[in-house]
Write a structure and sequence with these properties.
Blueprint: E1 7-10, H1 25-36, E2 40-44, H2 49-52, E3 64-67, E4 72-75, E5 78-82, H3 87-100, E6 103-108, E7 114-116, H4 120-126, H5 137-150, E8 152-154, E9 162-168, H6 172-185, E10 191-194, E11 200-205, H7 210-220, E12 228-232, H8 238-243, E13 246-249, H9 255-260, E14 263-264, H10 273-283
Parallel strand pairs: 1-2, 1-12, 2-3, 7-8, 12-13, 13-14
Antiparallel strand pairs: 3-4, 4-5, 6-9, 9-11, 10-11
Helix pairs in contact: 1-10
Organism: Neobacillus paridis
GO molecular function: hydrolase activity
Keywords: Coiled coil, Hydrolase
Length: about 280
């Protein structure tokens, strides 16, 4: 049976984003050309929707965004699906993060990420130079930026609709210990945990991931998984890559990702790997 690619889902970090957290103009241009040919192009990212604008070139457009690891879907500014963290989970996890001194960011819908002022000191300590060798430069720079200008430091957690938690630790031992605490909490409260590097973890609503988000976006456009191609690089991309008909790993992807994909790009995210792959696959 022959398949025609009608929809392409692109991860951001480590895929269309280079390690300086920027999307190249060439990647924007190839996306524009694919959309002109009638192929739908989507972002499928662990990042919140509100983060994307500051990372892409002027005029960057896609047909939709699956944000926060499948927690929300956007077409333009319109939300086409959304899940919200249970408030009892939010309160419990913030309490636990404080007890274990784990760097955290809580993402409200339509507003800057938040953390408590009382936790600012230990969070800042997690990103003091020098950068640990095993921490990716893109993740390190993002945390530096979050601390100084991204996080809205609050006296109390306010709001009722949150898309996800993001956690970071400068040592693998610390983050692995924290993941074990979260796994214990999953026995009391249902939620999904995802990772995209050796130094982070994210928490979303139970049974939500990039694959569920891709399915909801495809349904919105009247398409099936047989119409879809996806490109990714890390563990939080695995559900999406296992779902679609054509799965592509970045050259810089983890071995776990490469093992389950159909193809691997010839170039890394720092070498415009997505641009070259899409150009060769669809425009040559």
């Amino acid at each position: 049976m022959e398949y025609t690619t009608k929809a392409i889902f692109l991860d951001m970090d480590g895929t269309i984003l280079n390690h300086q957290n920027r999307v190249s103009v060439r990647t924007k241009e190839i996306i524009d050309k694919l959309r002109e040919k009638g192929i739908l192009v989507f972002i499928a990212t662990g990042r919140a929707y509100e983060e994307i604008e500051g990372l892409v070139p002027p005029g960057f457009q896609v047909d939709g965004v699956v944000a926060s690891n499948g927690m929300a879907g956007y077409v333009g500014e319109k939300i086409v699906f959304k899940h919200t963290l249970p408030l009892n989970l939010v309160e419990k996890v913030v309490q636990m993060a404080e007890e274990h001194k784990v760097y955290y960011e809580l993402f409200p819908y339509g507003a800057p990420r938040i953390a408590l002022k009382q936790d600012q000191a230990f969070m800042e300590a997690e990103i003091e130079d020098p950068k640990p060798e095993s921490v990716g430069i893109n993740e390190w720079l993002e945390r530096k930026k979050a601390i100084t200008e991204g996080i809205d430091w609050k006296d109390d957690i306010t709001g009722k609709e949150f898309s996800k938690f993001y956690f970071f630790a400068r040592t693998k031992d610390h983050i692995n210990s924290w993941k074990k605490e979260l796994e214990q909490l999953q026995k009391e409260i249902e939620f999904t945990m995802s990772v995209s590097s050796e130094h982070n973890a994210e928490v979303m609503v139970a049974n939500v991931d990039k694959a569920t988000g891709v399915q909801q976006m495809l349904k919105h456009f009247g398409l099936s998984i047989n119409d879809a191609l996806a490109i990714g690089d890390s563990d939080n991309d695995l559900p999406m890559l296992k779902l679609v008909h054509q799965a592509v790993a970045m050259k810089n992807a983890t071995d776990r990702v490469k093992k389950i994909t159909d193809e691997v790009t010839n170039f890394t995210c720092d070498e415009d790997g997505v641009y070259y792959y899409l150009k060769e696959k669809f425009l040559v």
